[in-house]
Amino acid sequence: MLGVFELTIRLPHPPHKTEIHVSLQEQVQDIRQSIIDLPFTMRYTCFHLEHKGQKINDFVELSEVPDVGPGSEFVLVEDPYTEKDARLHFVRIRELIGAAGDRTDTTHGILAGVSLHDDITQSAIEGTGKSASSISAEYDFDAPASYEALLPHQQPAAPKTVKTISVSPWSPPPYHLRMRGHLLYIQVTTNEGDQVQITSHTAGFYVNRSTKDKFDPSPKLSNKDLSAHSLLTLLGKISPSFDYNFRALTEENGKKDPLTMFSLQNAVPASPWLVPPPTSSFSTHYSDLTRSQESYLYAGAENADSLRDWNEEFQSMRELPKEQMQERVFRERLTSKLFADFTEAAARGAVLVARGDVLALNPTENRDAQIFVYNNIFFSFGADGMGTFASDGGDEAARVATGKDVVGVKAVNQLDITGLFTPGTVIIDYLGKRIVAQSIVPGIFKQREPGEPQVDYGGVEGKDVVAENEAFAPLFQQLSQQMYVKKHPVWDKEDKRHELEGSIETKGLLGTDGRKYVLDLYRITPLDVAWLEKYWSKPEGEVKDPEKSYPHRMAVLRPELVASYARVKLGEFVQAELAKRNEKTEGEHKNDESAVVSTKNGEAADKTEEGESKGAEVPHIDASNFKFSLNPDVFCDQTPQTDEEKEELAKDEEEVRAVCDYLTSKIIPTLIQELQEGDVGFPMDGESLSTLLHKRGINMRYLGQIATLADNDSQRLQALRQLTRQEMVTRSFKHIANKKMRHLPPPAAAACVSHLLNCLLGAELNAKPEAETDELIKSLYGDVDFGYEQTTPESLKQEILDQIRIRFRYEFKGDIVQSDRQMQLLREVSLKLGLQLEAREYTFAPCRATNGVNGVNGHAAAPGSNGEPHVNGSAKKANKKKKKGSDQGSPHRAAPAHSQTLSFHPDDVLNIVPVIKEASPRSVLAEDAFEAGRISIHQGDKQRGQTLLLESLSLYEQIYGILHPEVASAYSQLSSLYYGLEEKAAAIELARKAVIVSERTLGVDSSMTILSYLNLGLFEHASGNGELALRYILHALELLKIVYGPKHPDSITTINNGAVMLQQLKKYPESRVWFEASLTLSEQVSGKDSVANATLLYQLAQALALDNESRGAVNKMRDAYNIFKDKLGADNANTKDAATWLERLTQNAVVQAKREKVLAELPIRPIRGRVQGAGMRNPLPQIGQSREEALGGRKMSVGGQREMDERNIEELIKYIEGGDAGKTTPKKKPQTKRRIGRVS
Description:
Blueprint: E1 4-10, E2 17-23, H1 28-37, E3 47-51, E4 54-55, E5 73-78, H2 83-96, H3 117-126, H4 132-137, E6 162-167, H5 175-178, E7 182-190, E8 195-201, E9 204-207, E10 227-228, H6 231-238, H7 242-254, E11 274-275, H8 294-299, H9 310-318, H10 325-354, E12 371-374, E13 377-381, H11 395-415, E14 420-421, E15 425-430, E16 433-439, E17 457-459, E18 466-468, H12 473-482, E19 488-491, E20 497-500, E21 507-510, E22 516-519, H13 529-535, H14 559-584, E23 596-598, E24 604-606, E25 620-622, H15 643-677, H16 686-695, H17 703-709, H18 715-741, H19 749-761, H20 775-780, H21 793-808, H22 822-833, E26 835-838, E27 909-912, E28 915-918, H23 924-938, H24 942-960, H25 965-980, H26 984-1002, H27 1007-1022, H28 1026-1043, H29 1051-1064, H30 1068-1086, H31 1091-1106, H32 1110-1128, H33 1133-1150, H34 1152-1160, H35 1187-1190, H36 1209-1216
Helix pairs in contact: 3-28, 9-10, 10-24, 15-18, 17-18, 18-21, 18-22, 19-21, 23-24, 24-25, 25-26, 25-27, 26-27, 27-28, 28-29, 29-30, 30-31, 31-32, 32-33
């Protein structure tokens, strides 16, 4: 059990006491954070806790404090301040009183970490404007996307507590006053207009006698006490209006969900690609003296607080004990926090490096070979500045190698092998440059003695020199066993044989700190030899063979593919062992195909059939003899010397070829078949598509093959083809844009991006766009090549087609920009390049506004550039008279006057944020607890399963903090499990958290966010909150239009769910329209004669009956019956149900009055067919997830059909005719009570 109990906290000031719920597994610093977050204790920042007179260490678990349990009491004791405590207290109070103002963050961008959940929820709860059901009646399913769905609503100005508060110009204190305890000086201008100087002292804060012209930090004489331990308390004494305004501000903030306000500690906040214009209230730049003082406030005068020895922290963390449960929790929590801190520091440093603000250590080298050190982090460019990859593709190979290295480092970090260390590694793509950030390994720059290799294991200079330090062999052996890497021979330039446990490119380095480091992990899997032999060759002279022009030789197989193939080989091994056993025991267990495979490390591969009785004897197969590994250095110009060595290498090559064939002949066709049949969640955009492919072990270079295989009459595969073609265009454009931006000065980036976007998306509006480069910038950078200015729509199209042909081996036919899909392509390009564009209507064709025309209610949906508020999802009417010459006229404000008509201007590119790839490992502890809980529930042990699920949730929140993508995924999966357990209140709470955390960490329009909104709507509807549920469905549909466009294959389910919601709200005409829309889309996707279509006809017939359309209801039910009969047979239960309904509807159509009475009370009952997940029973699966997995492992009925109605047909008929069907009401489940998790 979790050991949750109530803990009393004694306070030094009113209310003098409070209670909080705690768990014995929590650390004391978690309790501190809980106290700070409470409204009446937020004044405390500098304090310690005591128990029975003894001070408690903040970094121990509560279980380690003696005699702590239910009824225990802690005492909060205020501590004296240090200079650092005073600075952080000042920062905290500024944030609390709403005086922090806006920050210009170099890394996170505009509105980073924004959430739209509160806007949507409040509009439904407060009932402002049109209701969701009214909007649904006017909803146009085929209308273009409106970007309004991506923008937060304008909020009224928050109550102002003080006019200004900042560090005083008198700060820091002189030497003699430091000796007396003075820490810093603060100046405040109250709402009454009084300017007050405050001294921060070790004992607290007090008003001093200083003025702007005279320095006198002694206490000011007054009739009342003008001192306090907390600055918040002191401000209330100084300003008569402060307490009132602060209460009003607190109440206003209290209306918001706390998760929308917490700062992100362990994750990078998502930066939206469309943001309000600079004139919006969200972007208003206020005068704030403290903004320029932030570096001092956060890091101190000597900047010492920000300097960290990253490498030592990483390696010390890995050396922490991990035997006990508490030790593992602490270690994984520290790991998550450390990786997050390093990622943010690396991103900030990379931005400075890219902008030229950091001096190179080797300024005389060419730009690509320059290296940098900033904030104890080593930076280099992901380019072939030293010629290391000259024979493998040069800069292209170097860029790919850095990306593969991060994947390899992440894999090694996940394995967590004791004694093997990796440097912290992050990749940042910014302004066309790829920058690699790494912690500095001790000794990596040390020049060794002549003849001594620079590394201790692996290839030193390519494959010419090979080092073999036997101390590394055992560690590399452990690594190789986990990653299916074969111990194999390699030969140096003198043809001397060396036995290596890893790839020759993977290096081992003995640092000067005595630790063993593994470096260069970009080749942990073999090359994709089938691809390279077909499409790549070493350049001979100037020209490369067009058929073999793939840009680099770093095409390696994904680790997921190797693991998948290993499972196949294990299955073959088990079958072979069973066959041998059956031969020995002929006649006994002849047909037994069940086995439990015991492996070396005690894991079990369960092959037991579900229907097997528990008491049956299960044979055990010893898998310790199973061997599978791949040689990562095959096809790498190795030179075996003997016939035996050549034969061994040939076998290794054959095995690698088998894996390559497995990818193209099994994995890819299977995925396409599953997507065609709707067995897994359909991808929505490029990110979800790449995630799906990577999970299956498919590299993105196979997009062309997937597009070719998907080119058939299936509408679902046509949607897949459309998505893959768009992704190929997007990725090709990204490569072209990066190449053109790579050596540009930062001030020219916006002009370059806008011109390339005009050539890509605005050619129909202007066939000959001209780049709007600032002439002053061009004159200042005379040695820079502004070659992008010569790009034309024709030349860009040809470049994109060439890139698609080279990189994806696909002959692209037709337009590269599909009609009415400009917004989707613009979004994909922006996300991949880190663009933040002004949210306005971009015109892509003459006299036609392509996007943003129709909002959710059919009105114009573009927000004004001046930030005018949206009223319930619709923009203000645009027919009001505007001031002549005003820049705030049309809601669709055009760009400033230019000499030509263009879709994009440099002013539209408001910011560019870094795109980050990092190598943090996932929490094994939390994942194991979740999986154990899921399995227990699946096996029927509900109580134990729920306990384990709560345990896993606690672990997720402790280890990652609440605001993290992994926690969002956990919330989403847990909500689905609780919904399946009929714990609706708990499911809603978890789904709501999943929505907010997904929005803030993945993006307001990410596929995960959309799925979270859809499931939240489903759960709210099940709890009777129809209007709110419909709001979430409408918002998800608008997001889906922006991300994919109209008619996403899985939107059949969404529209069908919305129809059922409208039906439950007794909006029968509206629900009929939605059912018809769902049916229309289903006919296009699944075909008119499909079982899925019959199911929707069945539901539409019910809707027509409720809308007094008896003839239409009979016709639709007859169509459903005919399809069921043809496809499933006359004896199928669905066919019989439809026949019975058809008979009753026909009879009741004669008696109008009776029909109205009967059908108005008729419960809407699901048919036993499947509509690609349609219906209100089950949550939607995540992208690539099967529907069974979305149910937490619960089995669906045969053929994937939904659960049957518990009543038989006779009972239902009796109910229709007015009898009692024995309807039972399920017992209400107790709500799972949990304390809100906290950011660590």
